[in-house]
Structure formats: structure tokens, C-alpha cells
Amino acid sequence: MALIVQKYGGTSVGSPERIAAVADRVIRWRQKGNDVVVVVSAMSGETNKLVALINAVNPIGSEREKDAILATGEQVTIGLLALALEKKGQPARSYTGGQVRILTDGAHTKARIMDIDGSPIRKDLAEGKVVVVAGFQGVTADGSITTLGRGGSDTTGVALAVALKADECQIYTDVDGVYTTDPRIEPKAKHIPVLSLEEMLEMASQGSKVLQIRSVEFAYKYDMPIRVLSSFDETDTGKSTLVTREDEVMEEVSVRGIAFNRDEAQLTVQGVPDRPGVAYQILGPISDANIEVDMIVQNSGSNSTTDFTFTVHRNDYHKATQILARTCEALGARAWEGDESIAKVAIVGAGMRSHAGIASKMFKVLADEGINIHMISTSEIKVAVVIDEKYLELAVRVLHQAFGLSS
Amino acid sequence: MALIVQKYGGTSVGSPERIAAVADRVIRWRQKGNDVVVVVSAMSGETNKLVALINAVNPIGSEREKDAILATGEQVTIGLLALALEKKGQPARSYTGGQVRILTDGAHTKARIMDIDGSPIRKDLAEGKVVVVAGFQGVTADGSITTLGRGGSDTTGVALAVALKADECQIYTDVDGVYTTDPRIEPKAKHIPVLSLEEMLEMASQGSKVLQIRSVEFAYKYDMPIRVLSSFDETDTGKSTLVTREDEVMEEVSVRGIAFNRDEAQLTVQGVPDRPGVAYQILGPISDANIEVDMIVQNSGSNSTTDFTFTVHRNDYHKATQILARTCEALGARAWEGDESIAKVAIVGAGMRSHAGIASKMFKVLADEGINIHMISTSEIKVAVVIDEKYLELAVRVLHQAFGLSS
Question: Residues that bind ATP, according to the entry (chains A, B) (predicted)?
């Protein structure tokens, strides 16, 4: 008897018919002798509709109020799925983030989960119920509703799996797993049956849209296996990708996949006085505004000044430029500039550790195509570069080919 | 400095533009030096959309789950109104029923308010904020979301006004007050500027759609004045109806208005053994199923049997017939029958007390038109009759004329 947490995204619960299909699948897993906890997103399109309402009323208003509005999408789905399960004879009980007490910090619209009280869920499971929990949302200690940011339902799924010590967290989506790169850009992209949490972390953080990065961080931190499956496979026998501990990943290749994203914007401060504390003075106010910074590069310049470049999510770009303008003045920097037309491309693979020359091969492949590199960032298992957005598709295809992923 | 609770219905908050207009009005009341608490319904059409989703998935499922779904409509509106107020420079804070802790019993889809914790609201008001509360919903002691039934937002408004000891509860709707009868049926219907809570109670329970009956019961019990106003009057100087203590209602007329409804269905048990406890045996199971019974008539029959007739809301008719069929068998009753094509018409007025012959005049007026009466129910300030639904409009018009309301 295993305990499975299943998460279904918006497309998987996009209509009463799709919700009935999810109920069927949940019941099949129950009938195989498993306890099942289900995390659901809002029905596809609902969150966008709520965002449009917010923007029509007051796009720059209090994020506490926005969260109260946004959280309703998932609340509708949990009720509907519980009703669908009941109709098929399976007792079920729904919980909002606040009801199951998914306690978060107060960073509205991108809150972080602090704690989950698993006891009411365990009680329901012991009574033979399926428990349905709203993804994407939580509650602060003082009872305000929070949301976890786009894709936060994955995080809810993994966090619940960790809190309940589940055997596996299954993420149902509209694709049957992780591919070597996005097949819409490179049709030769291939399915990856198993990869390590570390590799997935880099794939996710570099922009693979299959899993939300914070969910993978959570899974990595607590060693929770994630399985990515297609909710359109009604047989439960199709392909899937298991994301698990590195020692369980047998296949050893140098580069596992090509990740990319167009979600970032680049900001550069030029002619900053080169003295200790400058990085903090620039990034402190950005971070205080709850803006996440991804890549950071500092180049020593001439005349005791330096150039400082970093990237933020495009959604935060406007806010970041306002903060940066004030910081520049305070620092006596020469100028700052921003660029929203960038893209990030990365090669990812645990096998890189033992293979020299991977990074330089990447730079050569790009140079051969005349693609200029703005920034570089490396880790043990990835090399990421920022390039002009217009070269993105080209870069993905030539790298996919060059690292033997197309064969 | 007064404390005003304002309630806005679905039409009043039906679009971003209408929500902005509500925000303007709230701010005008603030600027006159009042503290304002606002209760809002779901945007018009939203609750029906949620009901359609529920019906598509499982119309006879758990009412706890239905409530979780239905409560989202108001949750969207509170966030949007708070954002609209902020945009216009007025600090605001929203609360769901669960957040402000509107504690109810567990009778899902028609829960009753047990208690409200006004302290967080008082704190916000003291800080100069407008507080926006979701109507129609509450929370049980164990944290399940409940709804109060259609029109429950009025009840939330009055209950909050009572809990906060407000000076007045203003109910904004799409009409500018209470009329002597529904102008869509009798174009000569006249506006009533002041009437007593007792009269309003009878008007509401007899089907006047302006105020929900439980809200008037609440106001009556706690002596809370209600003012009905139109949310389409942008000048705050138009007509309104003040519903208040009887001794403050100056105008003395015999009949204040003609109320009616088509929301009920009639059930009759024939040939019930005439012995003590029969009424309880028939109505006990109905009440256990949380079905409210309105009119009850028992006629002594012959041969130690009796006929027993009562009315329920049409929504509960199907459920009630199923229960009644079982009860009949258990009681050894001869037969039962039901009729969904009935209507109830009532004359209402505190002045009736001191005027003899009002009831018999009513019966004569109906008889003169050939309208047969199925059931009669009287109180100190109303006489209500059940007639065939097809005669409803005719009955309303002749009574409106006969009691001098058209002049």
C-alpha cells in the first residue's frame, strides 16, 4: 500500500469531462491499493480571466487582495473534483490551502511554504477518502490568503508529498515527460525516461516548462521522487519521466538536454565605483522588493570603476528599472541600461562533471553561427549563456545537434 | 461619525466599471465622516455559472463541496472592490466569511450565522480602512466553508451591522426601495418611503424580492434599521425605503402592500389517521432533511382521518415528495399529492390590527374574480392565501386596487 500524491494542471481539469477523467484515474490508483492525495490547479483559462479582472480594476494594487482573487480558481476545481469522485462512488474531501493549513510567508503572489499540517489529511485517508487539495495557494499565520506564483501547484504537490512522506509525487501534465529540449523548437528532441533531481533542477531553472523550479528544489531538498506523466494517456501504461536521486539514474551521458527561456530581462550598471559592498548596494534594494535575481556578472573595468550586470524575470523588469535608477544616483554610477530582448540557453547534464571541454565546445558551436554571448553562468552540471532573443531557436537546434541529442 | 454597513448585490458589482462606481460611493460616505464596512455579492451571473459547473459534474453531491465552489464568487468581488478603493486612494482590506470568522452551523447551502468576531474589522476601521466582507458565506467551527442560501449577502450585511453595532445597514440594489407591489405586475405600484421591520418581514416572507427574509428577521430581532437604496443613483439623493422600528413609522394605513411569490409547492397527505403526533410524524422527517416548511393547514376529516397540507420551496419539492412517500406508508395514510403550480398572495400592513374585516374583504375580492383559495394563513399584520399560479397577476392587481394602493 503506497501513498501517492498526484498533481493535475489546468488543462487536465479544464472541463467537467476532463475532471471526470481525472476522477477515473484517481479511482484506478485507489483500486490498485494506494492512498491518493490529489492537488489541482485552476481550470485552464480561469487564472488568466481573474488576472484580466484585476488588471481592469487596479493592476498595481495590494498583492494581498490579488491573492484572495487568484486563489478562487483552484477552490472551484477542488470542489468539482471531490463531487466527481463522489459521483463515481469514491468518498472525497476537499481542502483549500488555508483549510489544510499550508502555512506560507507573507510574500504575496510568490509566497513560500513554511509548514503543512498533514494530520487532517491522514485522518481522511485512514477513513478511505481521497483528499483533494487546492494547489498554488496557502495562508499566512494571520489568516491572509497567499499564492505561490505561476506553476505553484507543482510546489504544493511536492510539498504535500514531503509532509505526508508519500512514496511518489506524480505530476500530470499535457506532455508525457521531459525531453532533451522543447520539441516545438527542435522536432528531433527525444524523451528522457529517467533523470536526476539535480539535472531536473537545472532543466527547470533554465526554462524547461514541464516542472516548476521550486517544486524541483523542494523535491531535491527532501529527496522526493517526481514522476511526470501525461493526463491524456488513459491507459496508465504510456511513457513518463521519473526524476529521482542521482544514484538511481543509470544512463550516463555528457549532456542530458538543452534548456532555454525567454522570461528574463537584463540590467547593466555601468561605471560603478569599484569598492567593497557595491554588489550588495545594487542588489539589496532589488531583493528587498521581492524581485528574484538570476544571473549576476561583474566585470572589472578601468579607472577604478566596474560594470555590473544581472537578470530578473521580465515581469519584474519595470519595477527593477525604477529601483535601479534610484540606486545608480545614490552610488554615483555613470549610467544603467536594460534589455528585454534576451534569451537564456543552457546545456544540462550530470555527466559534464567528468567531461572536460563541454563549455568550450558550446561556445565554439555558438560562435560558428555568429551568435554573440552576453553573459555566462556555470555550475557543476550546466553551462548557461544569455544571447539575443532572435537567435534562440537557432542556438537550441545547433546545440541539440552538436551534443548528440538528435541522433 | 456614524458606522455604516453597505451591501451591494450582484448587479451593482457586475463589471469593473460598476465596481469602480461602488468604490466612488463608498468614498463619498467616508468623506462625510463615516466608517464604512461593505458587504458584496458575487458579480452578476457568476453564481449561476458555478451552479452550472456543479450540475455538469454532480448535481446531487456533497453540499460541503458545493459550498466551497459557490463561495468563490464573492471572494473575487471583495478583492476587486478592495483594489478599486486602493486605486482611488482609499486604504481597504478584504475578508472572506472564514477570515472575518462569520461562524455558522453546518447546514451547508443554507447555513445560519451563529457568531461574528468583529474585532479585526474594528481594528481596520480605527486605522482608517474600509473593510470589504464577502457576503453569502461563513465557516463552521471545524473550518468548512458554508453558504447562507440565495440572497444570503443581505443577511451577512445585517448580521455584520448588528455585530458591529452599526448605525444603519444600507442595502444597495437595482431598485430604489420597496413598492406597494411588484411594478412589473401592477404598473400603478407606489414607492413606500418608510415601513416597519414587522411589515417588511411579512413583505419579504411573502415574496417581495427586495430584501432576503432572513436579513429582515435578523434586523427585526436586533432592531437594526435597514435602508434600501438604488445603486444606480449616483447622486445619493434619490428615493429610498427606510425599514425601521414600528414606532418610527408615522404613516398609518390599513394595508401597506401586496406581496406574492411563485417559489413554493404544495403537498397534501390525505386520510391520515387522526391521532396525536401526526403533524410531527409528517413534518419531522421534512425538517430533518433541512427543508423549510412555510404554510401548514390541517383539516379535520371524517372517519377518524384528517387531511394535512403544507408548502415547501419549489427547489425542495422533489426531495420532499420522496420523504413524504415513505412517511405516508409508515403512517398508513390513504394517499398524498403535490402541486407545483401554485402561488401565494398576501396583503400586508401593521394597520390591519385595528381594522376589522380586512381578511373577509380580501376573500370577497378574490371570489368576485372566480379565484379559488387553497390555503389561508394569517398573522397580526398579514393575510396570505395560496391560489392557482395562473391567477397570480389578476389577484395582485385586483387586491392592489381594492385596498386603495393604486390611488
Answer: 7-10, 173-174, 179, 184, 209-210
- Contact of B24 with chain A, judged by CB distance below 8 Å, is answered with no
Contact B76 A96 (CB under 8 A): no
Strand partners, B269: B308, B336
Interface test mutation site (partner A, options B19, B46, B49, B62, max chain A beta carbons within 10 A)? B62
pLDDT higher than 60, residue A372? yes
Task: Flag whether the pTM goes above 0.90.
Answer: no
A20 touching chain B per CB within 8 A: yes
Most confident of the following: A149-153, B23-27, B261-265: B23-27
Cα–Cα distance, A81 to A42 (Å, whole number): 11
In chain A, residues with a C-beta closer than 8 Å to the C-beta of B66 are 79, 83
For domain B3-250, which CATH number applies: 3.40.1160.10, 3.40.50.1820, 3.40.50.300, 3.40.50.20? 3.40.1160.10
Chain A: give the shortest CA distance to residue B151, in Å.
20
Grid cell listed for A234: 488513459
Q: In Å, how far are A176, B103, B111, B162, B241 from B222, measured between CA atoms?
A: 61, 18, 19, 7, 19
Q: Are strands B240-244 and B102-104 parallel, antiparallel or unpaired?
A: unpaired
CA angle A191, A194, A199 (to 5 degrees): 95
Question: In chain A, what residues touch B68 (CB-CB under 8 Å)?
Answer: 75, 78-79, 82, 94, 96
Say yes or no: B71 contacts chain A, CB-CB below 8 A.
Answer: yes
Which among A58, A79, A84 is the nearest to B84, CB-wise?
A: A58
pLDDT at B250 over 60: no
Beta carbons of B75 and A86 less than 8 Å apart? no
Q: Does B61 touch chain A (CB under 8 A)?
A: yes
Nearest CA in chain A to B70: A76
CA quadruple A362, A364, A369, A370: dihedral sign: positive
- ipTM of this complex prediction, to 2 decimal places: 0.75
Lowest mean pLDDT among A35-49, A265-279, B85-99, B139-153: A265-279
Q: Taking CB atoms and an 8 Å cutoff, what residues of chain A touch B73? A: 72
Q: Are strands B226-230 and B194-196 parallel, antiparallel or unpaired?
A: unpaired
Chain A: nearest CA to B157, how far in angstroms? 20
Nine cell digits for residue B311:
408548502
Inter-chain CB pairs, A–B, below 8 Å = 117
> At what angle are helices A46-57 and A72-87 packed, to 10 degrees?
150
Least Cα distance to B260 among B363, B190, B344 occurs for B344
Is residue A209 annotated as involved in ligand binding?
yes
Domain positions in chain B are 3-250
Give the whole-number percent of chain A exceeding pLDDT 90: 63
